[in-house]
Request: fold
Amino acid sequence: MTEGFSGFGTTLNWDGEDIAELTSISGPDMSADVLDLTSHDSADSFREKIAGVRDGGQISIEGNFIPGDTAGQIAAVADFIAGSTKEVIITGPTAAAFTWTVDAFISAITFQHPYDDKLGFTATMTITGKPVLAVTASTGLTTPYFSISESAVIVPAAAGDVYEYVATVLTGITSVTVTPTATAGIITVDGNVVATGEASSAITLGAAGTVTEITIIVKETGKVAKTYTIWLARAAS
Reply:
């Protein structure tokens, strides 16, 4: 059986914000200068070569143009105009457990506005310095993993290696808290840092009959974060 992975779910984070609705992420396309050290003493008249200076290369992205993605796509345009270098993190799907972390500036950006097709954009990010590949996953949530206030019913049962859940609460519940547990790393709930075993701040739910997405992320230094998604349904009235 293959040990390959689907690329679906890969994200690119530019300066702390995921860029929305990407359809393709390529790179880093690293390369090295080739130094020819061939001499009259080279064995059997074959050239002798060594690697010279390495180049982190570029990252290329394309996706749907979303004018409302102010913290992602629109911020990237502003950084291009300013010539700013930012941290870029490519995160693979949870099952693949890898990240690429680089410093880069946007060296090209193009927007497409066809009359008979979708609005789109492409961008090229030129890397400065050494790309860092991390392939070790964070430990993630540990027993009892997480709980949700207000007697929420969680399916399946919480576990460290299960990454998506459906939870339900009664119609009258308008907010909940989440209490995560992890023995290592920094825990965030919907982007806010939460201490292990402590309740998060109140998470406001949508109207009765709607579903609210809640995200728990556990990240250890130098390791790939583990992300847990809870789809919390508030019963219809």
Q: What stands out?
A: The helical segments are 70-82. The chain has two domains: 11-134, 146-234. The chain has a mean pLDDT of 94.
